Amino acid sequence: MKHFTLNQTTVILLTLNLFATASMVKAQDTTAAQPVQNSVLNLQQCIEIGFKNNPEVKQAGFMAESAKINYNQSKANMLPDLNAGISHTSYNGRSINPYTNSYINEQNTAGSYQLTSGITLWNGSSIQNYMKQYRLNYEAGKMDEQNAKDKLTINIMLSYLSVLSAREQLNIALTQQASTQKKVDLLTIRNNDGAISPSDLSDMKGQLANDGITVVSTKNTLDNALQTLTQLMHIPYSADMQLALMSNGIIIQPYAETVDQVYENASQRLAMVKSADLKVESALKNIKAIRGQMMPTLSLFGGLYTNYSSAANIQQLTGTTDVPTSNYVTVNNVKTTVYGQQSNFTSQPISYNSQIKNNVNSAIGIGLQIPLTNNMQFRNKLKLAKVAELQVKEQAQTTRIQLRQAIVQDFINLNADYSTYKLLLSQVEDFGQSFHAADIRFANGAISTVDYVIAKNNLDRVQLNLVVAKYNYILRTKLLDFYQNRKLW
After folding, report:
1. Mode of pairing for the β-strands spanning 361-369 and 297-309
2. What average pLDDT does this structure show over 182-187?
């Protein structure tokens, strides 16, 4: 017996780019999450487990955290930098004594120490605009993370309702199979008594086989729906997984709001729309920041410096001695050498601490850097930024168009499901009465097995289709509620 599934009737929702994901359902990693205990889970619990375990949501969270770090760095770029430098060098042979700035030819070591700082005073507000851009990127990253959760919510809700629909269809199929089995048992007895034609029994057995095929097919649909749901939740598959019903208390009626009302609410609250708008604002700030880089940069800088050298020493006077000079005097026609006093010094190395203190010097300055050509880097960078702006604007517009298309499509399908559900309700009642009459007439031998099977198949088919229509209606109303931030459970 041919019957329709929830996934077949809602495939258009999964093909829309609005809710498409590159790879929402991946291979199941049984080490990534613990299996859910054998308890009844509601939709909220399934979604929360998915938020905790789903890799796409985690990756979106990592991206948002990276955007936050970039934003924090952009704020820090407005502060002065502070750097310390230390260097020690060993010299051999001819070198310059840093203490006397004269040449020496000996082995010595020298040390240099510095503490520098600088700050950009003005550069066309480029730093400020970059900070605003990264703040917007961070806000967009948070919206992207929420959008990943929104997509997961939609997919989990679809799979959740698919499981409920398949399970209800399976219960109906099992009931139908049990009813047919009773007829087969009864006809077997009557056939053994020779009260019926053998073809009546074989026809009913054929119907029992059809019912069995329906059960197998529906069970397979249920297993696949459970597999998809557990993959989205990123937990091990369990055929015993129990879900709370959602159809209780739901009134099948036309949706209260219009397309325009739903779209207006959705465009104001959905993370995907907010993310697209934030990315447009970010692109505009990026253009302003690049333009600022093409302006002169005014900066203030300063530093504190000192140094040390092992060759640095000080001469200390130890005394004087008389030494002959090149001069002389004539006394009695005799040349007598003139002696003069010569100071005697001893060389004493200057201590490390004394050199560090005595050699301290500082500097402060202001600089102006004017970009001229820079290999046209900034001009081309600006052109690329303008292209990126056009891209995100187009994406933002496309997002809104796809959102409205999805809402319109949902309303179209909702109205069709509502009308279908009312017709199927009427069909279930009509075919139910026909089958009841056929069952009585068949029990009394007034109709053939073929006529009975036709009446039964008509009722079985509309009962299964009614379940599909009901859950299709629930799904579409839940989608419209989700667009407007209404409670889903």
Report:
1. antiparallel
2. 91
